[in-house]
Design brief:
Chain A has no helices and eleven strands. By secondary structure, chain A is an all-beta fold. In chain A, the strands form two sheets. In chain A, strands 2, 4, 5, 6, 9, 10 and 11 form a seven-stranded mixed β-sheet that branches. In chain B, strands 2, 4, 5, 9, 10 and 11 form a six-stranded mixed β-sheet that branches. A five-stranded antiparallel β-sheet of chain B has the order 1-3-8-7-6, with no helix packed on it.
Amino acid sequence: DTAVSQTPKYLVTQMGNDKSIKCEQNLGHDTMYWYKQDSKKFLKIMFSYNNKELIINETVPNRFSPKSPDKAHLNLHINSLELGDSAVYFCASSQAGFSNQPQHFGDGTRLSIL
Amino acid sequence: QKEVEQNSGPLSVPEGAIASLNCTYSDRGSQSFFWYRQYSGKSPELIMSIYSNGDKEDGRFTAQLNKASQYVSLLIRDSQPSDSATYLCAVIFSGGYNKLIFGAGTRLAVHP
């Protein structure tokens, strides 16, 4: 059973389009995260939700909008895609957001903007 | 500025040797520290977590933490070619919210 699953694994699209990435975890965790890993492999947090409530919102363009319908799901919608959005986006989850517990990552979504 | 610093490498060690990976962090109040392994094209995989000063051993891996020096390290004994990967140091900085700050990673190459 996959603990943290993301879809799609690959996303190739043109500049200006709108796209969504979905994430689901079956670990029973309360907190979910979105990370971006750029071409230099630097992994940086974008958003975090604890039990459907936004608790971390880093300096990210407002073209990026996360949505958490329930604590097992966290989706990422991106409007008006730009070349600089090309990266690998990782979803992660952990137990309650204040517990300092480790985070477990999905397999990533490789987004390429043409 | 909250930072986690690692030597980018590559760190090259022969098979069977001990690989030593180092990490420093800027927030003296940090309490939680993690090492992740990331193979090329794959997701980060948790190897070790450490919360108290001293050593923590798990199989061939030993994490070492020195909060006074703001330093955390990972030792890999009897290194194998399959250990070749990028090792990411990650720290939860004080201030709550379980926000992980990652270092840029050290690339380890274990050669036969």
